[in-house]
Every structure is written in structure tokens, then in C-alpha cells.
């Protein structure tokens, strides 16, 4: 069957394959093909692949399925649901027997997985972490690769969502070298690190001390420690020290970002781009956030909503959205 592929010259093939693999964009269900002097690499997300690559183009092509790869569904009487995060598989099963069967199938399959974790609670508390049941492996620490960046993190100690990789890349593509970027809820650095790799001076704040420890380590791992400042504190306390500092602000705390808008306005420089994340009903997903931003920033700033972007469906009739907003004093 026809699948989206990156077509690239063989001499650039290994570099391209490595870049796609680091971003977890290669579609492992199909074989990489060579034909007429070109290399064809199947990709799971052609838009993300296209924005990432310097060489190659996206084409639709018939390639062979990987017949030798055994998947968990091949070993079960059903198709299990799981997420991949580095060499860990994450499942969400209430039935312990079903969870055990899925874990065993994942380990027996050809997936490059060493750890299987079952969600044991919802995200909770001020630090937004959850409990996990360790079904296989030694611990809850993983290494995740995303768009050429590497993140070490402990799922039991910090909040991290691999589902937002494409959204983080969308925002990162807007960052220019030399600008000053402030992530108000930075976590282990999934915005801060790629911003710094593009040449921005970055400041990340998080109330979770473990997240800040991992942010510092991830800055070191990715070679950007000289451009990253990490602070363990409530951003409302830190804001007074950085008044007017930011050219770009990230507010990825969608359930309660509105409570921090006064701090965001104090951090904003003369001309600042704000990425404001929200979760709202599908009938008016952007209105509440826009009204809250205007109430906090006007008339000190002229407020221009440049992008109203739907990130994903969050729950029935609820959307996770982002407002890219320009604040001009």
C-alpha cells in the first residue's frame, strides 16, 4: 500500500534516518526501500518530518510491510493501547490480569522496550505527577528523544507528555537566535532545550525540584547549559526579579494558566510573544483565554492574537488549545 515516505539521496540517507529516528518519526511497520537511486524512508507523521528535514522530500510510495516484526497485538487476542517513551511502554489498565498480559506481550514482541509501566493514578498535586505500577524493568527513569533533543526524566517524579512533541516543535520553529525566552512551567525542559538549541537565551522555572534537576541535566546533555538558567520556585515569586525580561513566554499549564497572567505581563518585554495553553469546551475553546489575556495585559499592551491553534482533543467536547499572542507595549 502507499505510505508517506521521505525520499532522499543515498549519501544523505543515514543522517536523514538518524534525524527521523531521534524524533520518533519513522514508521516501523514498513521497510526502508531503495529504488532508482533514491532511498525511501516511511514516516508516521509526514508534516512533522517535512518541517524537520533539510534534505529530502515527502512522497507517497508503495513499500513492503515488515513481515518479520512481531507486535504485541500478534501475541494477544486484542490490539492493546500503549504509548512509547524511550525504551518504556506506558499502559493504562485497571484489570491487573489484562495489564500483565499486555506487559508480557510487549516484552516478547520486537519493540525495543525494556520497561513497562501501568498508570496507577491520575496526574495530581502541585507538581503534576502520577503514580505508576512497574510491571517490567528496574525503575521509572527513561531517556526520550524528540526532534534531535535528548531528555532524561523520571516519570514518577515529573510531568511529561510525549503526545505534545509536534506542538512543541511548532512553537520552537518560531524562535530566533538571540531572543530571551521564559518558560513559566518548564518541567524537564521540552520547550527550553530546543529553544536554546536555536540560539535563544532561556530561563525555565518550575515548582518541582526534581524537574529542575532534570532540566539542568538535559541542558548539559544537549550542549546548551551556557544558555539555560533553571530556577526551582513558584514563578509568581520569581517574576519580580525578571520584570520586562522576556521576548517570548510559554504558559503550558492549561487548567490554571489564567491564575498566572499577572506574572506573565510583568515578565513581558516591550514586544513579547506569549504561547498560552488552555483547555476549554469545544463551543468556545479560544474565547476564555483571549478574554483573560486582554483583561491582564490591556491597556498597558496592545494585544494581537496571531494564531488560534487546536493542539488535540482532551476529553469529550473539550479541546486543548494554544493562543499565540503578541504583546506590544
UniProtKB/TrEMBL annotation:
Record domain SAM-dependent methyltransferase TRM5/TYW2-type: where: 82-329
Domain of life assignment: Archaea
GO molecular function (one): tRNA methyltransferase activity
Keywords: Cytoplasm, Methyltransferase, S-adenosyl-L-methionine, Transferase, tRNA processing
Keyword Cytoplasm among record annotations: yes
GO biological process, any: tRNA N1-guanine methylation
InterPro entries in alphabetical order: MeTrfase_TRM5/TYW2, SAM-dependent_MTases_sf, TRM5-TYW2-like_MTfase, TRM5/TYW2-like_N, Trm5a/b_N
Name of the protein described by the UniProt record: SAM-dependent methyltransferase TRM5/TYW2-type domain-containing protein
Natural source organism: Natrinema altunense (strain JCM 12890 / CGMCC 1.3731 / AJ2)
Source organism phylogeny: Archaea, Methanobacteriati, Methanobacteriota, Stenosarchaea group, Halobacteria
Amino acid at each position: 500500500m502507499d505510505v508517506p515516505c521521505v525520499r532522499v539521496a543515498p549519501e544523505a540517507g543515514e543522517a536523514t534516518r538518524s534525524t527521523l529516528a531521534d524524533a520518533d518519526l519513522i514508521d516501523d511497520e514498513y521497510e526502508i526501500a531503495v529504488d532508482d537511486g533514491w532511498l525511501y524512508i516511511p514516516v508516521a507523521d509526514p508534516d512533522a518530518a517535512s518541517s524537520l528535514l533539510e534534505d529530502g522530500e515527502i512522497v507517497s510510495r508503495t513499500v513492503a510491510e515488515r513481515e518479520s516484526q512481531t507486535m504485541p497485538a500478534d501475541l494477544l487476542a486484542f490490539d492493546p493501547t500503549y504509548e512509547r517513551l524511550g525504551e518504556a511502554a506506558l499502559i493504562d489498565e485497571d484489570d491487573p490480569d489484562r495489564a500483565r498480559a499486555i506487559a508480557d506481550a510487549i516484552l516478547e514482541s520486537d519493540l525495543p522496550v525494556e520497561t513497562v509501566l501501568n498508570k496507577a493514578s491520575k496526574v495530581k498535586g502541585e507538581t503534576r505527577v502520577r503514580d505508576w505500577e512497574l510491571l517490567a524493568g528496574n525503575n521509572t527513569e527513561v531517556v526520550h528523544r524528540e526532534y534531535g533533543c535528548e531528555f532524561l526524566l523520571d516519570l514518577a517524579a515529573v510531568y511529561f507528555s510525549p503526545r505534545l512533541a509536534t506542538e512543541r516543535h511548532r512553537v520552537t520553529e518560531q524562535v530566533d537566535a538571540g531572543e530571551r525566552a521564559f518558560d513559566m512551567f518548564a518541567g524537564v525542559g521540552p520547550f527550553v532545550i530546543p529553544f536554546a538549541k536555536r540560539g535563544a537565551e532561556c530561563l525555565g522555572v518550575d515548582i518541582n525540584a526534581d524537574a529542575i534537576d532534570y532540566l539542568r541535566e538535559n541542558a548539559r546533555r544537549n550542549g546548551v547549559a551556557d544558555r539555560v538558567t533553571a530556577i526551582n520556585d513558584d514563578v509568581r515569586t520569581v517574576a519580580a526579579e525578571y520584570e520586562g525580561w522576556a521576548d517570548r513566554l510559554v504558559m503550558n499549564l492549561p487548567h490554571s494558566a489564567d491564575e498566572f497572567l499577572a506574572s506573565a505581563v510583568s515578565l513581558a518585554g516591550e514586544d513579547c510573544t506569549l504561547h498560552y495553553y488552555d483547555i476549554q469546551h469545544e463551543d468556545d475553546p479560544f474565547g476564555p483565554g483571549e478574554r483573560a489575556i486582554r483583561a491582564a495585559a490591556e491597556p498597558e499592551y496592545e494585544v494581537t492574537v496571531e494564531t488560534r491553534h487546536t493542539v488535540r482533543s482532551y476529553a469529550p467536547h473539550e479541546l486543548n488549545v494554544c493562543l499565540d499572542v503578541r504583546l506590544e507595549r
